[in-house]
Amino acid sequence: MIENKSKPWYDACQNCTRSVIQTNDGVECRSCSDAQIVQRYRLTLNIIQGTATATVTLFEDAAIVYIGCSVNDYIQSTAEDEKSSKYFRDLETKSNKQYKFLIQLDERAQTQDNHLIVVAEAIERIQPKQKKETKQAVPYEKKRAKKNLKTNNAPTDKSIKIDSQKKKGMAIT
Fold this sequence. Notes:
Blueprint (H helix, E strand, L loop, with lengths): L8 E5 L6 E4 L2 E4 L7 E13 L2 E8 H8 L3 H8 L7 H8 L5 E5 L6 E3 L2 E11 L34 E3 L7 E3 L1
Parallel strand pairs: 5-8
Antiparallel strand pairs: 1-4, 2-3, 4-5, 6-8, 7-8, 9-10
């Protein structure tokens, strides 16, 4: 489930990519005091698998892979009406698809009551497995080999071949 589906971006400092704050004079970066802003992706996903839950945040590169477009293209497509945007509609259907997330378990990763909170470094969609074509059964006749009545040995119409390279297995033909 996507937490911030209607606005999966934030106003960021163009210099250091940190979030900017509104001031009386406009906007300002908390980190470097720069006033140039740019929109960047910050998409928050709630993921459930079995009894395990996680909140995974996707920033710029991983979010582009997930959403399928740049943040500016997304903003333009949703400017008039979110519901008419192809990218917004695609976001609603992605909750049933499977993805692999590359996460780094470091000091930024947190756990609260068996709930993991992480940032995804990369993302990859898992393609559903194709159903294998079933081979049609070829009808065959089962024949019984007759024993050699003179020697009472194994059937005489079979031969045994030994694989000369492996010398481990035998094939009966």
